[in-house]
Amino acid sequence: MKDGLKEMNIDLKRNVENFIGCEASFEEASMVVFGAPFDSTTSFRPGARFGSAAMRHESFGLETYSPYQDKDLLDYKVFDSGDLELCFGSQEMALKDIEDRTRVILDAGKLPLLIGGEHLVTLGSVRAVACKYDNLHIIHFDAHADLRDEYLGVGLSHACVMRRCHEIVGDGRIHQFCIRSGEREEFLFAKEHTDMHKFSFEGLKELVDKLVKENVPVYFTIDLDCLDPSVFPGTGTPEAGGVTFIQLLEAIKLVAKTNIVGADVNELAPMLDGSGASTAVACKVLRELMLAILQSA
């Protein structure tokens, strides 16, 4: 694998500033975190490109230990390779760079964990993961359906990301929760093609039991605007009626029982919440997600 990295001119070393507890080298890590600071298709309030850097910086306000799970990040090997340098003028170029980094991580036998960025970045990782794993299922937490075929004439948009993922994985393999916003056509499309659960996590346990029994590979994507704006206002498209942090944490712990082969957290726009509370929430979500996946692996 080292020769392969040299051929691709990729030298994965620890970032100067890491997410707290992510101190392992690439070689020894079982999970690799990387950032995709991209928000060029944001449809309302921009700023998600600064999310991954803000989460690294503010993570030092957290402990590595989680009292929720009685686990500590220092007990695991996680590598933080920093943010990709992405082309803001081309969605396809940015997605290709994300796909390539995800592929390097997968080829090394490690689990990729992407930090966005707007939600379109998920498509780059899904492209790579779907090439490696047949019968891939996607569990999607979000306020928005993200099932538009195009937004303002563009098919590569954060408003279309799950529609593009559907074109990769097919019917019945995208499982959506907390959805409470979208065009009528998106909800009609979901009735025919995805497994949508509106407003809450109702039905998640039954889904997890089924996916565990079948032992299918799962890609897990969390758009943080699934949280209620009273908990998480620092996002580009806030939607009233979301879930609480504790409800999200319990749902993450459930999903972690499945065979997760890739994951991401996205849509923090830190400057949209001057209090810093949204960034603190995002950091905690990321810590709990990492620990839930690592202890289940």
Highest-level CATH class: Alpha Beta
What is the CATH topology? Arginase, Chain A
> How large a portion of the residues is in β-strands, by DSSP E?
15-25%
Q: Could you state the CATH homologous superfamily?
A: Ureohydrolase domain
Domains (count): 1
Task: Write down the Rg.
Answer: 17 Å
The quaternary structure here is single chain
Helix content: 25-40%
Q: Which spans have pLDDT < 50 for at least 5 consecutive residues?
A: none
Strand order of the largest sheet: 4-1-5-10-9-6-7-8
Give the total of beta strands.
Answer: 10
CATH architecture: 3-Layer(aba) Sandwich
Query: How do the SSEs run, as a string of H and E?
Result: HEHEEEHEHEHEHEHEHEH
- N-to-C terminal Cα separation, in Å? 22 Å
Overall mean pLDDT: 94
Name its key features.
Arginase, Chain A, alpha/beta
Provide an overview of this structure:
The protein is of the alpha/beta class. The chain has a single domain, classed as Arginase, Chain A (3-Layer(aba) Sandwich), CATH 3.40.800.10. It has 9 helices and 10 strands. It has helices at residues 2-7, 51-58, 91-107, 121-132, 161-169, 184-193, 204-214, 245-255, 277-296, and strands spanning 31-36, 65-66, 71-72, 78-83, 111-116, 137-141, 174-179, 195-198, 217-223, 259-266. The strands form 2 sheets. Strands 4-1-5-10-9-6-7-8 form an 8-stranded parallel beta sheet, sandwiched between helices. β6 (137-141), α5 (161-169) and β7 (174-179) form a beta-alpha-beta unit. α2 packs across α9 (277-296) and α3 runs parallel beside α4. The protein is globular and about 45 Å long. The two termini are 22 Å apart.
